[in-house]
Write a structure and sequence with these properties.
Rossmann fold; binds NADP nicotinamide-adenine-dinucleotide phosphate; 9 helices; alpha/beta; 7-stranded parallel beta sheet
Length: about 250
C-alpha cells in the first residue's frame, strides 16, 4: 500500500486485535500515523492479555482495553474509556469473531447463541456505542465473511451471523450518513490465521483447489482493503460489501 494513505491524528479502535487480522489492522493503521486501541477478551490464563500487550508493545502510544464485545456493559465501559482518554473516535473496525463449526443436526443451542452473540451482537453493540462519538469523516468497517454469502457446510451460526452483519452494515450506513460516517463490510475468503489453521487439512485443501488466485489469502490482503475503505479515497463508498477472496466467490 503506497504512502498516499495517512491517518495522522486519527483514533482507531479494532475489536479482537490481540492476534490475527485484527492485530494486522492496528499495526498498519499505526504505521500510517493513527493512534490505536487494541482490544482483547480476558481469559483465566491471561493469554489474550499477553497477546494484546505484545501487539501494543509494537505500536506508538497504544491503549489496550479488555472488553468482551458480546457483553453490552463491557462495550459501554470500553467506549467510555476511549472518550475519556482519547477524546473521541474516527475509525471503528468490528473484527472480533469466533467460529464453532457443526452441522445443523449437531450444533448445540449454546454454541449457536455464542457465535451469534460475539459476531453479530458484538458488532451491533460496538456500532451503537461508537455512533455518538464518531467524528465527521469517520468510518466503520465490519468483518463479514464469504460464508455469509455462500452459506458454507457446517457453518450455520457463523454464516448466519456474517450474513446478518452485511444487513446491519447497510442499515448503519443509512443511519450514520447524516453525520458523514461511512459504514462498509469486508467479506474475506480463506485467510491464513489461527481461525483457518484450526480447520481440518482436507477442508483447507478443498478451499485451495477452488481458488482462482491459486493461494490462500494473507492478513495484509484484508488489511489493505480496510486501509482503502478508511481513506479519503473511499469517501463516496458506503453500505457496500467488499469481497477479498482471491476469486473464490464472485458476487454480482
Ligand atoms: P482469529 O485469529 O481467531 O482472531 C479472532 C480475534 O477475535 C482475536 O483477537 C480474539 O481475541 C477476538 N475475540 C474473540 N471473541 C471476542 C470477544 N468476545 N470480544 C472481543 N474480542 C474477541 O480470527 P481472524 O482469522 O483474525 O478473524 C478476524 C475476523 O475476520 C473475524 O470476524 C472472522 O470471522 C473474519 N474472517 C476471517 C476469515 C479467515 O479466513 N481467517 C475469513 C472470513 C472472515 P482473543 O485473542 O483475546 O481471544
Amino acid at each position: 500500500m503506497s504512502d498516499w494513505i495517512d491517518f495522522t491524528g486519527k483514533i482507531v479502535l479494532v475489536t479482537g486485535s490481540s492476534r490475527g487480522i485484527g492485530a494486522g489492522m492496528v499495526e498498519a493503521f499505526n504505521r500510517f500515523g493513527a493512534r490505536c486501541v487494541v482490544n482483547y477478551v480476558g481469559d483465566p490464563q491471561g493469554r489474550n492479555e499477553a497477546d494484546a500487550q505484545r501487539v501494543a508493545a509494537g505500536l506508538k502510544d497504544p491503549v489496550a482495553i479488555e472488553c468482551d464485545v458480546s457483553n453490552p456493559a463491557s462495550v459501554a465501559a470500553m467506549f467510555d474509556r476511549v472518550q475519556r482518554e482519547l477524546g473521541g473516535l474516527d475509525i471503528l473496525i468490528n473484527n472480533a469473531g469466533i467460529i464453532r463449526d457443526q452441522t445443523i443436526k449437531k450444533i448445540s443451542a449454546e454454541d449457536w447463541n455464542t457465535v451469534l452473540n460475539v459476531n453479530l451482537s458484538g458488532t451491533f453493540h460496538c456500532i451503537q456505542h461508537a455512533s455518538p462519538m464518531l467524528r465527521p469523516g469517520g468510518r466503520v468497517v465490519n468483518l463479514a465473511s464469504v460464508a455469509g454469502s455462500l452459506g458454507l457446510f457446517g457453518q450455520a451460526g457463523y454464516a448466519s451471523s456474517k450474513a446478518a452483519i452485511m444487513a446491519l452494515t447497510r442499515v448503519a450506513a443509512r443511519e450514520l450518513a447524516r453525520q458523514r460516517v461511512t459504514v462498509n463490510a469486508i467479506a474475506p475468503g480463506f485467510i491464513d490465521t489461527d481461525m483457518t489453521r484450526s480447520m481440518p487439512e482436507e477442508v483447507s485443501k478443498k478451499f485451495l483447489d477452488q481458488l482462482p488466485a491459486g493461494r490462500i489469502g494473507k492478513i495484509d490482503d484484508v488489511v489493505d482493503a480496510a486501509l482503502f475503505l478508511c481513506s479519503p479515497h473511499a469517501d463516496y463508498i458506503t453500505g457496500q460489501v467488499l469481497h477479498v477472496n482471491g476469486g473464490f466467490h464472485m458476487a454480482g
